[in-house]
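Blinded run. Sample ID left blank on purpose so nobody reads anything into the name before looking at the predicted structure. Input follows.
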Amino acid sequence: MSKSRKAILNLSWQAVAYGVGTLGSQLVSYLTLPILTHALTKEEYGAIPLLLSAFSFLNILTNAGLPAATYHYYNEDEDPRRRKFLLGGSQFLFFSFAALPAVFMFLFPQYFSTLLLQSNAYALAVRYASIALVTDSLIFFGNIILRIQMRALVSSLHMIMSLILKMGLAILFVTKYNLGVNGYWLGYLLSSIVALLVMLWLTRDHISLQFRKGDLINLVVFGSALILSEISMNILRIADRYVVSFLTGLDQVAVYDIGYKVGALLTMAIGPFKFAWNPFAFAAIRKEGAPKIFRDIFAYVTAGSVFGALGLTAFRKEIVFMLAPHSYEAAIPIVGWVAFSHIFVAVQPITSFSLVSQKKGAILSWIAASAGVLNVALCYLLIPRIGIIGAAVATLVGYAFLSVVSYVAGKRWLDMKINWRQLSKVAFAALPSLFGISVIEKIALATVFSLSLKLALLLTFPLLLLALRFITINQMQEIAHLAFSMLARRGKKGAPNEDAV
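Blinded prediction complete.
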């Protein structure tokens, strides 16, 4: 088997392990949505994603590009003692950067509640979130250690158990004690504290209070080049909700959020890949044939993401009504736009890796900032004209801009020479499914018949890929053979084979 496919399979093993956590966490989160959407008013439910978006933004801000910086310098230096000092410095920065905004949020919760949610009624929830910001930041650092050690399954199980506890406590406080949004965030905080204690125990051998000034400077300098990029990408992900809130109100945020969440179900597949990508890519780039490895991964990730987006588009109505009452029907048109935007989310780590690995974070930052500005501008332009679906359209355009321009800018340092012929096969195979699904939705058919037709049309996509020789039967058999041999080897050794990269 080619070195490229071996590397792809090695990445797949890591992604599968992370997928256990991502899939499990997403399932827990989505299974609790029907309870929250029925227990809370639309305005109350709308306040939750807005505060979660702000919380996510602050997490990105306080991480300050530290994850990529930590991976980079850890892989660059093989001395155990210096590596421990590096992790100690990273740990110190994670805590310090999170504590600063947390103190202001804790001391002035009414100001932040009014600023973010246009009401001071959620001040207590803001105070809970401020404490959780610090605990979550330290948990994130612990996960970096687990990923460096290739303990993907441990990281995943920790993620699942944490979320089960979080959603369980949130539902308890919301439904039994009628604490509303405050109850949701109280449950989040208590579960975060428990999760931090468990993470401290899991990483106890690698926690260090010692660090060197030089490591702090290196981490901050490397991370600062990426921070504008990460902030901009986060704005690209969350700004639409704030524009929807400003132009239409919290009740429409609730509707938009449900549609977005259904479209973003694709992250169940994307998330594991993104978790596994950075440690894999920083190791793979030093190997011979890295551009071909990245090119092949790009093609397969694109095909898989298109298939997922088609599936979500086909069954969007049924999924929306599983998660929310019929009063959320306006969320259905949002799903397809968001699902297809996540194709670009899936490939973005690959298209931007050249800039990240070559410490060209400033270029990536300007690209991401431009994408964020484009997204916000389109939201303000489209929402007054076509409603909240305009925010979904803006999201698709913003993510497409980010991925395409990142690839073009990074070709100077690492040109993976995208196989456009392969991508054209993916597009051609998707067209019959997409056209057929849109036709079926306009015809009044019995539910069972309609679902059966959609499923049949969806399956034409992989069949056409085979017919177009996007991947051959022999290649699939070759990959399966290597997969079983790697599984047997890992079962005996209990550790990943780094040479497979």
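Unblinding after everyone has recorded impressions. Residues 3-39 form the longest helix (37 residues).
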